[in-house]
Write a structure and sequence with these properties.
- With about 700 residues, the protein is of the alpha+beta class.
- Helices cover about 45% and strands about 15% of the residues.
- It is built from 28 helices and 22 strands.
- Strands 1, 2, 3, 4, 5 and 6 form a six-stranded mixed beta sheet that branches. A five-stranded mixed beta sheet has the order 8-7-11-9-10, with helices on one face.
- A hairpin with a 2-residue loop joins strand 9 and strand 10.
- The longest helix has 21 residues.
Length: about 700
């Protein structure tokens, strides 16, 4: 595989979208000559980092560049004599990495650490020297980047490297920013390596670093990494896509005309906006081609609308949907519901009279900066911290206040991963998740979980290994199985067994989605092979105790000589609003008015019969009691019912399932007003955690 085929960056004609964006180009030969000539006078910046200073000042006009000058002098002198495999002086690499971050808007501390990121690993410079010259913040970041540099772990090299990278990133996300920029420059110059090594590095970049860039919101790095990986791992598809883009460049592009129409609409509405056409990158064009087949002119880019305030986003959207024909299925509101990686925008698509469909993205300028640079746009997360917290020792662990929830979860479970292979496979699966949900705990806290997570995942996220004893859950107030999937905004209450030796069932792994849950369950099952609970309890006949009484209690139907029965599905009692329906045999079944069976009866055309309650206060009701299994539980419940002066008409006890027992009681109450007191008395029985009407 040639260097040209594996390095799209080396061929300007292969990356027309980058030329149109006007991205600063790095002349490695010029930088190499400047590096060999050494630093200039102490009064001004060395010429070799003039482009870095220019890009930095574009985002931070008041930045103090003296720190960058000193960092470059130290980096250049320490790396002097070292060469890259491309034949250029090694200093060109930290310069290129720093330029990438400067273009994204990184603050001065990050750029200083970027210039020095290889000095401790590859030269005689020590962390103490870095701390003495540049302070604790720069020292901390350089130390974090040093810890994630490639070292020889044999077959486990990549998993162990990225495990270290996660830990360092958790302490300061700027470490990952530098690592991503470092990998991007290495990918740009990968053509000098052997094809098999190119493929190995590209696969790791695809599997881990690109998803991490997506998670951290650094879209500018992610899209270019995707294109570089695409060219190496799929050269034929890449060449086909390049040919499609080249052919489109020679045709009439409808997007500029559509963009001008959008400008006119917004200008007439009095909305100040910048409207530009954003060409799609290679992988995006390839995906669109796979989805839509033959591409049209409007498929090669999108229209970006930048406004000043959040309210202007919705105003612009309203004007677009009024003056153009909207494609409703394409609308997405990531402002009201931001993505987990900080991304905010309104996405829509409009159809023009000429038959083109143009995708439109509406966002504020601040949203645009965050969408492109992600965590890099957040600046220094410790800028406002007290001095004691902002200047830790390089070996001290701290928690970045900007660290997203998904990263916290990765840091938690990576400590429990039993071996590098498990860590690697689970990491890839976790990074493949592209959406998060938030569920509320019963105590008012929240849990961040990947989309598709179950109650089992929530249990391990909240209770850790104590979740081995989880026997059930209530979601939005209703009992449900542990395998139930959770939705965004659900409230979940997890029920733990009182027996500390309880363990997970064999089928929990089928329903667990998070690495923390899967690793914990798998470890317990391996450690207890002889005590694994069966996935399903063999069916056994329930124990039933049936009394002699029946009938409709004190419900009376306005139908002469009709037999009245209280429905077992909803067990109405006074003073419930009720409705009656004639069933086979001429009997009238009485339901609560909100019972689902009432709607079914009416849908079938059944005529309702008026029903009222007798003046007598007695009534019949069916109650469901959920409890933990223990000896003498049935006797204790029956005794509690008897103390309330209530007659048991029938009782059914289902076989225990995962230490949970379900009781169904049909009871005759002497007075309907005593029902709340009865239910409280049953809940007070040790082991009973829920009592409700059927």
């Amino acid at each position: 595989m040639s260097a040209e085929a594996t390095n799209p960056e080396a061929r300007p004609e292969a990356r027309p979208e980058l030329r149109r964006r006007g991205r600063t180009r790095l002349d490695l030969r010029r930088l190499g000559r400047a590096a060999l000539l050494g630093p200039t006078s102490r009064d001004r910046l060395p010429d070799a980092i003039g482009h870095v200073a220019e890009a930095h000042r574009a985002h931070h006009p008041d930045a103090d560049l003296s720190l960058l000058r000193r960092a470059y002098v130290l980096a250049e002198s320490s790396h002097r004599g070292q060469m890259r495999k491309s034949g250029e002086p090694y200093i060109t690499h930290p310069l290129a990495v720093t330029l990438i971050l400067a273009e994204l808007g990184a603050e001065t501390t990050t750029l200083t650490a970027s210039l020095l990121h290889d000095t401790v690993e590859d030269t005689e410079v020590t962390l103490d020297q870095v701390r003495a010259e540049f302070g604790d913040e720069v020292c901390f970041i350089v130390d974090g980047v040093t810890k994630v540099e490639k070292i020889d772990y044999g077959a486990a090299a990549e998993p162990e490297t990225f495990r270290k990278m996660l830990v360092a990133t958790g302490n300061d996300v700027r470490v990952m920013s530098i690592k991503l920029a470092d990998r991007l420059h290495n990918m740009r110059t990968l053509g000098v390596m052997r094809p098999e090594k190119q493929a190995r590095i590209a696969k790791v970049t695809r599997d881990v670093l690109i998803p991490l860039a997506e998670r951290l919101g650094v879209q500018a790095l992610k899209t270019e990494l995707e294109d570089l990986v695409f060219a190496i791992l799929h050269p034929e598809e890449y060449e086909h896509t390049r040919a499609l883009i080249a052919a489109h460049a020679g045709e009439r592009d409808p997007l500029p005309a559509i963009a001008e129409s959008v400008r006119a609409v917004l200008r007439e509405a009095g909305i100040a906006a910048e409207v530009v056409v954003r060409p799609r990158h290679f992988v995006s064009v390839h995906r669109i081609a796979l989805t839509r087949g033959e591409l049209r002119g409007s498929d090669f880019g999108r229209i970006l609308v930048l406004v000043g305030e959040n309210a202007d986003c919705y105003a612009a959207l309203g004007e677009l949907h009024t003056c153009f024909t909207p494609v409703v299925s394409e609308f997405k509101d990531f402002i009201a519901a931001p993505k987990f990686n900080l991304y905010q925008s309104l996405h829509t698509a409009v159809a023009t009279p000429e038959g083109y469909v143009a995708e439109v993205i509406v966002r504020t300028r601040q949203m645009h900066r965050v969408a492109e640079a992600g965590v890099v746009a957040l600046g220094n997360p410790y800028a406002t911290a007290p001095a004691a917290e902002a200047a830790p020792d390089c070996d001290e662990e701290r928690v970045d206040p900007t660290r997203p929830g998904w990263l916290s979860r990765l840091l938690d479970w990576q400590q429990s991963a039993p071996d590098p292979d498990t860590f690697w496979s689970v990491l890839r699966a976790e990074l493949a998740q592209d959406r998060e949900i938030t569920v509320f705990r019963a105590d008012g806290g929240t849990l961040g979980l990947p989309a598709g997570a179950s109650c089992i995942d929530a249990a391990y996220a909240q209770h850790g290994e104590a979740a081995h004893g989880c026997i059930g859950a209530r979601v939005n107030g209703r009992l449900t199985s542990l395998a139930s999937r959770l939705s965004d905004g659900d409230t979940v209450q997890l029920l733990l067994a009182q027996d500390a030796s309880s363990g997970p069932a064999a089928d929990w792994l089928e329903h667990a989605r998070t690495p923390a849950a899967r690793i914990a369950i798998g470890s317990w099952l391996q450690a207890h092979p002889d005590t694994v609970k069966p996935a399903a309890t063999p069916a056994r006949a329930p124990l039933s105790v049936v009394g002699a009484r029946g009938g409709g209690g004190n419900a009376v139907a306005d139908l002469p000589d009709a037999t009245v029965r209280l429905a077992g599905c909803c067990t109405p009692v006074p003073p419930d609003a009720v409705a009656g329906f004639v069933v086979r045999g001429g009997a009238v079944t009485v339901h609560r008015i909100h019972c689902a069976a009432v709607a079914q009866m009416r849908a079938l055309g059944r005529t309702s019969v008026a029903v009222h309650w007798r003046a007598t206060a007695d009534c019949r009701v069916t109650l469901l009691a959920e409890s933990f299994g223990r000896p003498h539980l049935l006797a204790d419940l029956t005794e509690a019912i008897a103390r309330e002066g209530v007659e048991v008409v029938s009782a059914t006890v289902e076989p225990p399932v995962e230490q949970r027992v379900r009781h169904t009681y049909t009871l005759q109450l002497p007075d309907a007003t005593g029902l709340p007191s009865l239910m409280r008395a049953m809940r007070d029985v040790p082991g009973v955690y829920d009592v409700r009407r059927a």
